[in-house]
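Notes from the pairing session

We agreed to fold both candidates in a single pass and log them together. This is the raw record for the first candidate, unedited. Please don't reformat it; downstream parsing expects exactly this layout.

Candidate A
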Amino acid sequence: MNKTIEIIGAPATFGQRKLGVNLGPDAIRYAGLVARISAIGHDVKDSGNIQLPELDLNKFNSEQQGLRNLDEIVETSTRLSDAVSNSIENNHFPLIIGGDHSIAIGSISGISKHYKNLGVIWYDAHGDLNVPEESPSGNIHGMPLRVLVGEGDEQLVNISNYTPKVKPENIVLIGMRDLDVGERRYIKEHNIKTYTMAEVDRYGIKQVMEETIDYLKDKTDGIHLSLDVDALDPVETPGTGTRVLGGLTYRESHFAMELLHNSKLITSMDLVEVNPLIDHNNDTAEQAVGLVGSFFGETLL
């Protein structure tokens, strides 16, 4: 990779109910993110954290139009979209560190305007494909991918004044093991390429990643990786807010990142849902940094 890797922090906690994920970007930096990427030989620019709405604990989890913290997420998404778009205009590789997964609304909104057919790899335990009327919780971190395909709250759908940001046929879901009824229906109706943990067990992570790359490479002109650390099994990676047992192992995920690096197709990345307040000794942030190292080409020899 000959692009400067630009780190953009988005310390947002508005998309879900647990405090602490807003500390994720700083925990990831503290775990040695910049040094790890620089040691591989890349140029790194840490642009710090974007300015976010004030976190008012008296209003946290407020509902607007049935959605929790909607106004704050609209503002966050707009600012993040602008920052990420600017990064691409400067010919940088944007690495966005969160924050909860609602930040993908902003990051992908800023990215997709620069591509005709953006592909998205959603590496996660959850599909994040809910719409407000079907969401069991009203938490927007369970809705970003559906927003990005053009469905949901009008303000969120139209971040950066265009929609949709991604087509269903350009999405691959990996690591799925907790899908709501509406999400299952949407995946089936739109034939979204999906690898549940059953498929990962059956085929192995090597085949899953190779099929993902083959599926996206010829019909997209850029591929965004959105990596939620809850894709990994919480026995190994406890510092995240929506844990689901039976996930991907740390070693499997390292190999997945190595295969994505070797493909030379990934053009941007999110790393989200690290919550140091419920972690053990910052282990989850350190593991996240290790995965980023593999993604950017780190090898033992």
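Candidate B (folded immediately after A)
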Amino acid sequence: MAHPLLIKILNVLAYIFLLSANIYSVFEGNKSNSPYHEAHKTYISPAPFVFGVWGLIHFLLGGFVIYQFFPGENEVVVEGINWHFIGISLLNALWLALWEANWLIISFIAILFTSFQISYVYGVLKKQDYAPKNLIDQLLINVPFSLYHAWIAVILTLSFFAIVTPEKTNEEPILLVKIVVVIALLILKSLSATYIEAGDDISGAIVIAWTLIGIFVEQEDLVIHWTALVLAVFSILHIIKGIIFLVIRRNRTGGEYTALNNP
């Protein structure tokens, strides 16, 4: 096993690299190709405000790379997350560069491998051995990776549609495109429900609901527009249900800490 300090230092460098790539994309890069502006817009692309989730994820990951140096965090960071955060950051930055360069198929492959890495970390953090010990553990370790996991699912969806469907125009999409988009929206809604039902993961469910709201706002086609809204409402209801159940369970345990991402 690598030295714990080496992993933590590389985590910091990987975070700075990913953050710098995104800041460059927003402020200095080619805005016509930036994922936060007009690049590769399809009939499932959400409104630009949805990408604000990425800022929240960066903020919490910044807390993670600082908090990892606190005593008692070696087990979850070194043995659990291990090298995977470094791989996630590098692959995510690679996706961004390829996306902006219009290498869509290769960028899809990059984000697909990113999803494998983040799913592994997400699964590790769901294990009882790495359950958060307190609220700070929850906010600076579990929540950022939960948000990240859901966000990569969104990016994976957008990347897939950029390959297999035409770019959005002022014209109404053909029936086949509408059908494929609705199927994708249903899959996203199912993912949101899975976050709640399988693991009390409110953070991930919120990202999906937020994305569905953004698709509702952005897309003018009536079928896509209203389907996204209905599914967003159902996702929000699922989130409310999850919060209520967490409150009930907390009351039953006498007010002891209950993680938002672990049953």
